Amino acid sequence: MDVEIIGFVAALLTTSAFVPQVIKVWKSKSSKGVSISMYLVLLLGVFLWGVYGYLIGSTSIMVANTVTGFLQMMILFLIFKNKGKD
Questions:
Q1: Looking at residue 17, what is its pLDDT?
Q2: Which of 12, 17, 10, 33 is nearest to 72 (CA)?
Q3: In angstroms, what CA-CA distances link 67 with 1, 14, 22, 49, 85?
């Protein structure tokens, strides 16, 4: 069994964990209770994981962290867009 398959399954599961938050903030147009600092720190960590994945040549790490970073940037965008409306 190729270990990258395990990496892709793990990536799919952990990345998809952010989708419900994106949908909730998008539909409700409210980011009340969502921590900006948590998403900023997490985004930095995801960026560094992506760099690490690139350096070791792990496609699953690079793909997972690119998608996760995009979802986190969407949440941050919506938080700042909706700031003051909550």
A1: 84
A2: 17
A3: 25, 10, 13, 12, 28
Is 3-82 CATH 1.20.1280.290? yes
CA angle at 33 for the pair 37 and 81, rounded to the nearest 5°: 70
Highest mean pLDDT (candidates 2-6, 36-40, 44-48, 80-84)? 44-48
Tokens (6 digits) for 38: 């948590």
- Is the pLDDT at 24 greater than 80? The verdict is yes
CA distance 10 to 47: 17
- Pick the more confident residue, 66 or 18: 66
